[in-house]
Amino acid sequence: MPDNAFNVIATRHGTEAQRAELADRIIRNAPQPGVHACAVPDLALIRADEPSQPLACVYHPSLCVVVQGRKQAMLGEDLYHYDPLHYLVVSMSVPVTGQVIEASPERPYLCLRIDIDTQAVAELVTQLAASPPPAQENGRALYLARTDASLLDAILRLVRLLDAPDEAPVLAPLVLREIHYRVLSGELGARLQALCHVDGAAHRIARAIELLKAHYTEPLRIEQIAAAAHMSPSTLHQRFKVATAMTPLQFQKQLRLQEARRLMLMEGVEAAAAAHRVGYESPSQFSREYRRLFGAPPRREVQAALQNGAAMA
């Protein structure tokens, strides 16, 4: 058998062993379904024991690595399937509809979410071989790439630190930096690098998103958002929709509705009060737009979510 065939077999067996160990460690640290914060900063473990209903939510800049099972995310009309062979990168905060599509009590859906440190990305970009930004920065804020053995190895070393609390404060930042490097130097790393080009469209759209997140309860005009992004209103509108599949004002509306749902689910706030707190003046408009996004009027949808134990899954 040729040497390269042996190498392929060894690599395959190695990644299978890595995933098996990752699955075991995630199950031990996330014994119940849900999102579990960890002692390691910027790392969360996610588990689901059955497929879920589609749920509108906001994805923040992060790296999502599935170890077992499958999930899909919809941004606009684009559908992203991520599984043990592919990881999902979220380069900007975006409202999406997520759904676990493969999970069971015997083989639960298991995923790691690592928050992207934009400062670490910027520092690493300066150390990578100089490369110009993409000729057309026209990609979505979500993208999928293939999970390779090097990235999987770094992620496994990070998860092992959950069982080494004395070592984690020293070693976790180093491993997280390596993970950022692996993503940046991967097949679609240029998409993430584009965020660091201050004159590029991706960086400017990210700036507009941060403005919307900070002032989502306020009435904003497209001219204000465009000025913050250093773009003309027409250019902002076009670029923003390319990255997020929605206009800036549609984006703001989704942020309002997401926060109103969180207030009702997690703090027990009544629908009318939640609507007012996120910037709605008309309760009927809030109810109508909430139903359009979540599939049912606020009170009914929240009651169903609480009964299903899926408030923030």
UniProtKB/TrEMBL annotation:
Signal peptide: none annotated. SMART domains: HTH_ARAC (SM00342). The keyword Transcription applies. This is AraC family transcriptional regulator N-terminal domain-containing protein. Residues 206-304 form the HTH araC/xylS-type domain. Keywords: Transcription, Transcription regulation. InterPro entries: Homeodomain-like_sf (IPR009057), HTH_AraC (IPR018060), Tscrpt_reg_HTH_AraC_N (IPR009594). PANTHER family: ARAC-FAMILY TRANSCRIPTIONAL REGULATOR, TRANSCRIPTIONAL REGULATORY PROTEIN.
